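Subject: Protein record for review, amino acid sequence with backbone structure tokens
Why sent: The fold of this protein is of interest and is recorded here as tokens.
Enclosed: The protein record, placed directly beneath this head.
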Amino acid sequence: MAATPDAHSNPIATTDQETPVNRSLAASLGRAAARAAEQTAGGAALLLICDPSDDRPRLRAAAGLDSPEQAREMSRSLMPLIQDVMTTAARQVREGDPANLPQQAGGVLALPLQADDGPCHGVLLVLCPREPSLAIAENAAQLASSAALRIDHEALRDRVRELEGKSSQTGNSTSQGGEEILKLSEALFAQDIELLQSQEKLGSVQKLKNDFIQKMSRELRTPLNSIIEAVISVLAGENENLSQAGKASLRSALDEGTAFLRTLQNILDLWRLKQGELPVSQQAVNFREVVEEAIFSVQDTLGEKPVVIEKKIAEPLPKLRTDLPKVNQILFLLLDNAAKFIEQGRIEICAEVLDDRLHCTIEDTGIGICADDQEFIFEEFFQVDDTASCDYRGAGLGLTLVRELLELMDGEIELSSEVGHGTRVGFTVPVTLA
């Protein structure tokens, strides 16, 4: 069972009114669910905990689903797995061996909310669009442990406050009561340190990822651009002195270098989107010129294939105002994807403006996409089969980037395909008339 591929990772408030949860704790659980959903790239997460007065786990936070109702329905359907995880965790506590290991059912990871040798407070469910990787399982385990520690911390804090309140009401505390408060305060301080260490570890993972992206941008793009410029310079200046084999080798190197640079740029753009570093801007756009530029840019991808690109642009198509670089990138990525997966036939580009929105479709007569793969086609690094990365150049990020760019621009995308008969991708974006 998995989440829908277009699910968001914002936390959904699901706390029941009859059993209120500390607001700070609720916010912390919501962040844990959001992080768990985000790392799955299109999946979802549910976090259920048990109240001290009720052993039945209740949904406290969710992310990656469309509504609290959907989250509750999902948790009800997974209740047998939830109960099994909690039963196993309780047995491990009794036997002195709390492993805090995830159980897996299909694309669902189920982890007990358990810190060290403490009790199991509930379950973190991570719903992955496809088989979860070891990295996802390890990160989810860290999130589950951190959430359990926070629950322990709040319970201990409440107990300290309760004892302190009783002491103030009586005017003085007994030796036994004062000793208990002291011990609990020491445990509370120790948990404060452990929580900080846990948050620091989670933060260091994010910082490591961000540092890697920045270094990749600097250390790979700069020399790669120099290599491409050098190859172009040799082909332009020494063309007559080169043998046919030499020209072919240099052109092949240029194609590979350009393709790698585009893949690298897609990774960087996707990262900047997730960091909120790609604001939407407005420029005057001549969409016909955008189409012509995209067609020119995919000629290297098409090569010598007997493929005809047809344009059907509704007349009159007015000049528009929208985000030119993003529309240009969306159209190129969709057209380039069509060019990769077609050996012969045609690619048709249609466009019109209706109700202040630009409607565009790219339809091809390529190999098509099977129904099972269509659900995940917009996910990061997804390839239609195990050999796709060898047969068709690319990292599986183009369509993911298209989806993210359209979401940023308040646009929409739809896809229909049939194996052996081609694929049709349509998108719309809001525009204003120039």
